[in-house]
């Protein structure tokens, strides 16, 4: 028996990220424009970093509240009041070591060995992989695509439910497709979960990156206090804090102790000085978010115009998030295409194969960057498409 064979089957089966494989291939290339990762190109703004630095200078380097410092949970309550029009008690929030950590804890609380969790695909690959590592079985239900864009057939979700199903994972606005559920769809999913006694893990991290009027529709718009919903979220996207690894779970107050215990046995809490930065992000960052969304809207329109003009790129203009998920006439293997684009266009994209069923023919471009870089990248891609 080899050393690796002594590990848990679930750990051995954890897949290598299809995104990271392309990143590793191209990250050191001179002049490459990296549009493969889900982050912007701006550093964390100083009003956030300075607040964290003050906490560090004040000696906030000891163990702290496992569920998050009261000031941060209170700031989260204010954030939800402003953006979602809901009175939410601080007891409904648990601070986590990233949005990914929030997802892991949600899975740990709901699903274990042999249980099934349904998710909508194409999808950010980390949820399905995390469910598999926990011993659960991720079950993909593909979004539909037509000339009218991406849509969710709730009957397909219902057909995928079995006696082993424990939860539905719903990410809207979606990474990578940009699909954004309307209120009617959210209510239909919620009614299905209620009827089948299922949990919903709601990933609404891109709720404010919405290109309609105001934020995207949320399960908060249709849910009651007693519905089985865990909201998982992160500071990464709204406030340019991807490297900070701070997130949160919004849950029923009755579950707070359970999640505090799970924090204890995973990370034992987020550093207090980092939470000071998170408080500043929530209380002082609305203007920064607005500017980021408008910047992303302009970037989306620029990229769509240039790639659309080629006549070879096929896509739906995304309603939310900050990705363009597109196909190219003549390309069927997006993984091979992503490597070829690195080599011959000097642009980094994520292959659709990394996003599961329904994504195989697509490429994902993160357009949350400055316009001059995006314009150059789009023209490079247009030139590359002429060679296909």
Strand portion, in percent? 15-25%
The class by helix and strand makeup works out as alpha/beta
Could you name the ranges where pLDDT drops below 50 across 5 or more consecutive residues? none
The H-and-E topology, N to C, reads as HHEHHEHEHEEEHEHEEEHHHEEHEEEH
User: How far apart are the first and last residues' alpha carbons, in Å?
Assistant: 47 Å
Average pLDDT level:
96
- The outline comes out as globular
**What spatial order of strands do you see in the largest sheet?**
2-10-9-8-7-3-4
* Number of DSSP-assigned strands: 15
Q: What's the quaternary structure here?
A: single chain
- Alpha plus pi helix count: 13
Question: What is the gyration radius calculated from CA atoms?
Answer: 21 Å
Q: What composes the largest sheet?
A: 7 strands, mixed
Question: Would you kindly provide a written description of the structure presented here, covering whatever features stand out?
Answer:
InterPro entries: Aminotransferase_I/II_large, AspAT/PAT-like, NHTrfase_class1_PyrdxlP-BS, PyrdxlP-dep_Trfase, PyrdxlP-dep_Trfase_major, PyrdxlP-dep_Trfase_small. It holds the Pfam family Aminotran_1_2. It catalyses: L-aspartate + 2-oxoglutarate = oxaloacetate + L-glutamate. A hairpin with a 7-residue loop joins strand 11 and strand 12. The mean pLDDT is 96. The strands form 4 sheets. A 7-stranded mixed β-sheet has the order 2-10-9-8-7-3-4, with helices on both faces. A 4-stranded antiparallel β-sheet has the order 11-12-15-14. The protein has 13 helices and 15 strands. The protein is α/β, with parallel strands linked by helices and 388 residues long.
């Amino acid at each position: 028996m080899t050393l690796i064979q002594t590990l848990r089957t679930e750990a051995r089966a954890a897949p290598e990220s299809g995104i990271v494989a392309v990143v590793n291939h191209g990250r050191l290339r001179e002049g490459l424009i990296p549009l493969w990762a889900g982050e912007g190109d701006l550093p964390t703004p100083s009003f956030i970093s300075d607040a964290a630095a003050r906490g560090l200078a004040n000696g906030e380097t000891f163990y702290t509240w496992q569920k998050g410092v009261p000031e941060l949970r209170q700031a989260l309550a204010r954030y939800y009041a402003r953006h979602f029009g809901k009175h939410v008690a601080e007891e409904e929030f648990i601070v986590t070591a990233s949005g990914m950590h929030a997802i892991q804890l949600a899975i740990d609380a709901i699903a274990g060995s042999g249980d099934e969790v349904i998710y909508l695909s194409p999808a950010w690959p980390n949820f399905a992989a995390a469910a598999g590592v926990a011993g659960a079985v991720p079950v993909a239900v593909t979004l539909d695509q037509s000339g009218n864009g991406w849509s969710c057939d709730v009957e397909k979700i219902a057909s995928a439910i079995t006696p082993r199903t424990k939860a539905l994972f719903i990410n809207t606005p979606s990474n990578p497709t940009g699909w954004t559920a309307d209120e009617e769809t959210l209510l239909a999913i919620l009614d299905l979960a209620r009827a089948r006694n299922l949990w919903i893990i709601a990933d609404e991290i891109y709720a404010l990156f919405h290109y309609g009027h105001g934020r995207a529709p949320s399960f908060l718009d249709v849910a009651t206090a007693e519905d089985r919903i865990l909201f998982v979220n992160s500071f990464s996207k709204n406030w340019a804090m991807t490297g900070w690894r701070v997130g949160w779970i919004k849950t029923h107050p009755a579950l707070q102790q359970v999640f505090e215990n799970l924090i204890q046995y995973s990370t034992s809490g987020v550093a207090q000085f980092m939470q000071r930065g998170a408080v500043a992000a929530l209380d002082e960052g609305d203007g920064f978010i607005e500017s980021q969304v408008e910047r992303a809207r302009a970037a989306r329109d620029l990229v769509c115009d240039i790639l659309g003009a080629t006549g070879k790129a096929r896509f739906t203009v995304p309603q939310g998030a900050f990705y363009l998920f597109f196909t190219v006439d003549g390309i069927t293997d997006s993984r091979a295409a992503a490597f070829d684009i690195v080599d011959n266009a000097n642009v980094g994209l994520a292959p659709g194969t990394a996003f599961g069923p329904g994504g195989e023919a697509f490429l994902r471009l993160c357009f949350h960057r400055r316009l001059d870089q995006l314009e150059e990248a789009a023209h490079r891609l247009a030139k590359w498409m002429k060679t296909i």
